[in-house]
Amino acid sequence: MRPFSYERVSTPAAAAAAVRAKPGAKFIAGGTNLLDLMKLEIEAPTHLIDLRPLGLDRIEETEEGGLRIGALVTNTDLAANDRVRRDYGVLTRAIVAGASGQLRNRATTAGNLLQRTRCPYFYDPNQACNKRKPGSGCSAIGGVSRQLAVIGVSESCIATHPSDMAVAMRLLDAEVETVTAMGEVKTIPIADFHRLPGDQPHIDTTLPPGDLITAVTLPRPLGGAHVYRKVRDRASYAFALVSVATVVQSDGSGRVAFGGLAHKPWRVEKAEAALPQGAKAVVDLALAGARATDQNRFKVTLAERTLAAALSDARR
Amino acid sequence: MAGDIDLSRRGVLMAGSATAALTAVSPAEAQTPRPEAEPSRMGVTLQVNGARRSLEVDTRTTLLDLLREHLGLTGTKKGCDHGQCGACTVIVDGQRINACLSLAVMNEGAEVTTIEGLGQVDDLHPMQAAFIQHDGYQCGYCTPGQICSAIAVLDEIRAGVPSHVTGNLRERPRATREEFQERMSGNICRCGAYSNIAEAMADVAGGRA
């Protein structure tokens, strides 16, 4: 690990000032992803700003009847929250499908959204990776790609976003509240938060450097049957090959988002109109234009079958 | 005769390590150069197994290394050092965490319980006794993490924290074998003592009920 200095901050304004003052500074909250990457020197901040004294750990009702989730609410606390379990079951289901109990106890809501890909080529400093080192190439393309993306890919990158929680957040139309380094409060719809790799795969999100996430808000509950179904190489504690988040209403309409397929949670609103026609109709639209490799082409079929299973779960 | 293609195992290994050395370009060096920070030291005070400990450490010190290298509490084990195996599991402020993925300085004021603080040979924690009773280990390397995790799992179930296998999210989770197996998935046991670990947990959970 490279040396770094460390400070704790107690207000968002102090956090903004601290990050402005030191080039090479990074925020740290749970640290479960950042420290992992710092040990490999894939991340090498020269200064860490510990956000944990900020609080930002409450879950409150909004005036609109939704929920405002503090950026530092842990994955465990969010999944266990009574309102979330009752009204946003797909979110609880997605969170507990990810990581381990130990990691969920420290991982935060904002940190989960900002976690980096687990593409094995990103994690191996001896391999070319445009996300880790812009312009170095992509060893994953033409390499072992079984776990990697099948849609929204580019010539530069075929990494996937690893989060389960973010797939549910995308399904629920969450909004990300941020404060800029100058103190300005902004809101980013989750649909615009994660980006596709294009020719700049080193940029994961539209959050400008130095801006701080303060909360994630959920709109009013959708009702309906909530299902998160995840397919992975072992029954627990593994990243998704394919996952499906869905909320299905009694008339058969609903929403669908996929994990494990793309550089961001994958949701195509116009494909959701096909839900009453079944899984194949939805996936044909949602994954139109898929560019799979020989090794990960199975994901397209698996997405259809996982959605079919999820819709079956929703009818139970 | 193999002649000049007779590469010994030793020769192959040496060639392999030379290749590794040539290609081991650090990504931080390879990226845009930025000023290298000097090693930085900082004071940290925390409660470890009930005792107040104050010390000064390099900011890079993880909670795991603080426990093992600075406080001599080597019961907590370093397995993967990347949060994948669970051998370093300790209980911090009542919650189990991977001590390898937490900086020591991030735990200022925290209450840390390690395997040494749970019980000793003549005064075992009920979970330690149950692991012995049910043969919940072979080599023992993952065991301190397994025991810390198992105790915290029973607390999580009692607190109503749901898991991937919890049937109805409106109901409280129950202390079932299926719940133990799912919740313990962050603790890897290369010897495969899993079923006996689940038996030990069921024993302790039943005793409490």
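The radius of gyration of chain A is 19 Å.
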